[in-house]
Amino acid sequence: MSEPLRPRPAPRAALSGRSDRTFQLLILALASVIVGVFVLSVYQLGRESWPALREFGLGFYTERTWNPVTGQFGAAQMVIGTLVTSLAALVLSVPLAVASALFVAEYAPKWLANPVGYLIELLAAVPSVVYGLWALFVVAPILGRWQQGFFADPANLQVYTRCQDLWNSGQTTLQCFFVPSAFDGRGLALAILILTVMILPYTASVARDVIRLVPQDQREAMYALGATKWEVISRAILPYARAGILGGVILALGRALGETLAVAMVIGDSQDIIKSLWGGASTMASVIANQFGDAQETLHRSSVVALGLGLFFLSVLVNFLARVVIARLTPRGIQ
Amino acid sequence: MSARSSALPARSRPGLSPARRARNLLMGALIGLSTVIVVAPLILIFGYLLREGLGAMNLDFFTRTPAPEGETGGGLLNAIVGSLQMLAMASVLGVGVGVAGGIFLAEYPRHPLMPTVRMLSDVLAGIPAIVMGLVAYGLIVLQFGFSGLAGAVALGFLMIPIVVRTTEEVLKLVPLTVREAGLSLGLPQWLVILRIVLPAAAGGIVTGVMLALARVAGEAAPLLFTAFGNPLVSLDPTKPMSALPLEIFRGATSAYDENQRLAKAGALLLILIIFATSLLARWASRRR
Amino acid sequence: MKKTLLLGLALVTTATASQAAAQTITGAGASFPYPLYSKMFAEYRKSTGVSVNYQSVGSGAGQKQITERTVDFAGSDNPMTDEAMRAAPGRLLHVPTAIGAVVPAYNVPGVTQPLKFTGRVLADIYLGKIRTWNDRAITALNPGVTLPGLPITAVRRSDGSGTTYVFADYLSKVSNEWKTRVGVGNSLQWPTGTGAKGNDGVAGVVKSTPGAIGYVELVYAKQNKLPYGSVRNRAGKDVLADNGPASAAAQGVVIPADTRVSLTNSANRDAYPITSFTYVIFYREQRYGGRTQAQARALKNLLGWMVTSGQAYNEALDYAKLPSAVASKARNLIGSMTYGGGKL
């Protein structure tokens, strides 16, 4: 912003000063509702999670047991579940998202680029419950059929029985990790899959905007050297757009961490250690959705809210990270 | 945009080694394939809902409430009416605070509170919706019971940062000369903002509000512990209310064919409304 | 302009709402009696014009919400503990409305006649010790039935549930390992299985998953056409759940004045062993949180109707009626409701 151009209520200030001040106060009052919402949220979450945090300390977030019968609460499994689902979804979605952004920005003719761009934006607008519904009614049965087919072979059934023994004693091996443990299609894998689809459009649309902002001379220079299209993309465009894309990736991560209902509907809700890619797991958000409504004992309920508090700070952290990354790494031309 | 029209197509050049040419083609194909994979779920979901939901969208669907469990022939009038009421109430909060916040950020950039408001608004944008549901539960439900109003407040909280962001952006697009012209006519700053700047930016703000509405219209998570649901049509904002996303959630996890049928039709209605709103908003912003 | 329009809409809704307010009663809790309640309340509205909004969110949620006074009454299949009742801001009453049976519903392709289970077998399935349908323990109970080597998917509740409580209460009585490793509660730390929300959700997963078993109230199995097995009772008889065996479970059980009692593993030789009352829970003193006398009276009338004329709907939906001795205790409890200390 160029400072001297800013309008200033200079000479006539005396005349209009009072009404200006009133208006400014009004605007300020309404804008401070934003501050209020933040402060109230922190207060509310903090107050309600206090009993759990006082009882278990910060170890709450690293302790494994979650047993409402004995009143032992530790959120490690949900924290792990949240991170595993989000990061796995990120790994799967980023290459696809960047590729689709490249397609829209670099490859597609205009008549195709615009509709595809629209479709990707609509993908972001599909509500979480609708993804959940689709995952339950369409994708889960497909996965379930595959899982049952797996056991048509008696040898696989033996492997499964062996793995069950391990799982029952709280262990797993790499092989067992990939052996189905439930046969309804729901579980960790489906949650990752649906999260991948859900966060794709966030990375894709940020990446597309950033790629379009890459200065034309970057491309021209490479083409002039005789580079192929892919060489231009991989050596001139992607390095230039890297920071912006990373910012989009972190935003997508933020969405994945807090995604609730679609995940709660398909993840199979187990607060146990994750033993199989196909088995049940839970995330912080899914446990809030499933247990907040009925957590009666103070400690149980407070533990559920403490999950919310953890999620709150996690999302603040991710937001902060995204800003730092974008500010630090963006080439000056794009800022 | 101009990238496509640029440069000489490399593959027409002589002397390009087969390996480079092959890699170029391969990567192009992979990129095209990836795009298909990205877009496929949308088409699959929409196709599925059209096939399964359209048939259930009869007159009863729009005029009746859900039948008792195990019986058939109900509709989702309770959810449609509930969603409309809560979105209307949420807009009062979301638009009032959001537009004011946007004006504050764009027009008072030197105010000492400006950086705080900007930062917190960004932070709020990233807070998961379910957490907002927890907050609204503690603030409102514990005092006054479950209500449509509590649900609307949770949705309103979610709308605020989106409206702030778009309002600030479009206000900044209004040229400074316009403001200066107003000021030089002797208008006080507040009149310049209200009478000149805001009208000039109105289209963009409406677009932002529509996008915010499209975003919160599909939220079920913050309504679970606030609006709570209601099998009957309720016009009382102080009583529990149903909403389309809540009924979809209930039906999608139900064993009853009737509930599943209503959920599919509800999902189709919801995404049709959301798609229409988003596309309308895009179209409006393109036209300017 | 848009804003004023919306504001106007909000005002109009507020205005029309105030008339309807007194006629609405909000309840929440158990999914176990939900098919019955949704039928009862639809009929009640037809005959009296009073709207009842009952949300089937699970017994645990019902108990929590009545404690926090966010609803007018709660539904629950397990009575609240003394400790939980002390946490409530007023004296709570329990009134049973029906007797229901929790059945093991399953989805095993190729099996046509009802399978036989024992409590021990069910416990071992949910402990993860019995893993396939052709396990020796199951085939021994079901001679002549060809069971596939399909792995068992044990489906359980993800929310705090009275149905879970009743099931776990029964398993604890028949399996020591269950009692020590898992215990009894609305929410448990499950050794195995996949979670689903509500009776309805469990039935849904069982329906769509070959090899699945789930515990649901009888009506959910019947209405969704899921096969369910018999369970061997304390007298050693294999009993398939139905109204008769469910109501037999209450015979010979001493019902205390506050009606809080467990009916599982009944000694009666015709009884189905996983049986329970389902309760409505409410405050004895109705004057709290700005409630009007009219609201309190509307609630009292509704509850009175549920344990008298409302019982007419029980059997059509496969719940047993309240035995007459229990029904009279229920009427007495409802009669003891007060408003501001005076009789309601």
UniProtKB/TrEMBL annotation, chain A:
Main subcellular localisation: membrane
Boundaries of every ABC transmembrane type-1 domain copy: 79-322
Transmembrane regions: 25-46, 78-104, 116-143, 188-211, 304-326
This protein's UniProt keywords: Cell membrane, Membrane, Phosphate transport, Transmembrane, Transmembrane helix, Transport
Gene3D superfamilies: MetI-like
One Pfam assignment: BPD_transp_1
Bilayer disposition of the protein: Multi-pass membrane protein
Subcellular localization: Cell membrane
NCBIfam families linked: phosphate_pstC (TIGR02138)
Family: Belongs to the binding-protein-dependent transport system permease family. CysTW subfamily.
Function: Part of the binding-protein-dependent transport system for phosphate; probably responsible for the translocation of the substrate across the membrane.
Protein name (record): Phosphate transport system permease protein
Upper lineage: Bacteria, Thermotogati, Deinococcota, Deinococci, Deinococcales
TrEMBL record, chain C:
A Pfam family reported for this protein in Swiss-Prot or TrEMBL: PBP_like_2
Chain ranges of the PBP domain: 15-307
InterPro entries: ABC_phos-bd_PstS, PBP_domain, Phosphate-bind_PstS
Signal peptide (UniProt feature, chain positions): 1-20
UniProt keywords, alphabetically: Phosphate transport, Signal, Transport
Family, as annotated: Belongs to the PstS family.
Name the UniProt record assigns to this protein: Phosphate-binding protein
